[in-house]
Automatic annotation (TrEMBL):
GO molecular function annotations of the record: phosphatase activity
Gene source species: Aminobacter aminovorans (Chelatobacter heintzii)
Domain (Calcineurin-like phosphoesterase) ranges: 1-178
Protein name, UniProt field: Phosphodiesterase
GO cellular component terms attached to this protein's record: cytoplasm
Family that this chain belongs to: Belongs to the metallophosphoesterase superfamily. YfcE family.
InterPro entries to which the protein is assigned, alphabetical: Ap4A_hydrolase, Calcineurin-like_PHP_lpxH, Metallo-depent_PP-like, Pesterase_MJ0912
Highest rank taxon of the organism: Bacteria
């Protein structure tokens, strides 16, 4: 079995298109999406239409959840901008996404941790950086789940952990590699991963894909979110405002 795993697209359809083209070359049995699909100053509605057409198994991220809360987000913030861009059909789609999803054989999809879409499953928060969680910390966050393979996103950090009979994979982010004040990967390339099950064992390959990140940076500036531009263009954080 071969899975393509994407996460944290954040409305960056140019990155998504490039990633999907490479995924097709790998001929996976299934592509899964770990959430934070649309929120970003880029192309949220176009991304929603693309994802609805592909119909990949998808879970809700914390930003997806924010888009569905009863109070309309502040339009001067990214979630508010995204909310204003979305059609009724796209809002309905994002509202219907589950917080987690189980797939055979013994696979769990979640955004943050199995219990909380804002928890960093494989990392600890160092303020201006993430650092890896140790095995005991990861085990506590996993609790007593039955899955053997856990797929998570949220931190935008490509990482693999093999502990206590679990394999945990974060594929990194398709759409965003750095935020103001926080460098995640240090390059602008879009990320995804391939997970392969052979003879009862999972193996993993991370991928970094070139796309037209200059167009994405220009789009962020055009929509009034110039603070995103530097990270999209370089993969390194700009200064916090």
């Amino acid at each position: 079995m071969r899975l393509a795993v994407v996460s944290d697209i954040h409305g960056n359809i140019r990155a998504l298109e490039a990633v999907h083209a490479r995924i097709k070359d790998s001929s996976p049995d299934l592509t899964v999406n770990l959430g934070d699909c649309l929120s970003g100053p880029l192309w949220p509605e176009e991304t929603a239409q693309y994802l609805m057409a592909e119909n990949w198994p998808t879970v809700r991220g914390n930003h997806d959840r924010a888009l569905t809360e009863t109070s309309v987000p502040d339009p001067e913030k990214v979630d508010g901008f995204t909310h204003q861009c979305l059609s009724a059909a796209s809002r309905q789609w994002i509202s219907a996404l589950p917080a987690s999803l189980s797939l055979p054989p013994e696979i769990l999809l979640c955004h943050g941790s199995p219990e909380d879409d804002e928890v960093f499953l494989l990392e600890e928060d160092g303020g201006d950086h993430f650092y890896p969680s140790d095995e005991a910390q990861i085990a506590r966050k996993l609790g007593k789940i039955d899955a053997r393979l856990i797929l998570c996103g949220h931190t935008h950090t490509p990482r693999i952990a093999l502990i206590s009979g679990w394999a945990v994979l974060n594929p990194g982010s398709v759409g965003v590699q750095a935020f103001p004040g926080l460098t995640v990967t240090g390059s602008p390339h879009a990320r995804f991963a391939i997970a392969t099950l052979e003879k009862g064992e999972w193996t993993f390959v991370h991928h970094a894909i070139a796309y037209d990140w200059s167009e994405a940076a220009q789009r962020a500036e055009a929509t009034g979110f110039a603070s995103w531009s530097h990270g999209l263009l370089t993969g390194y954080a700009g200064k916090r405002s």
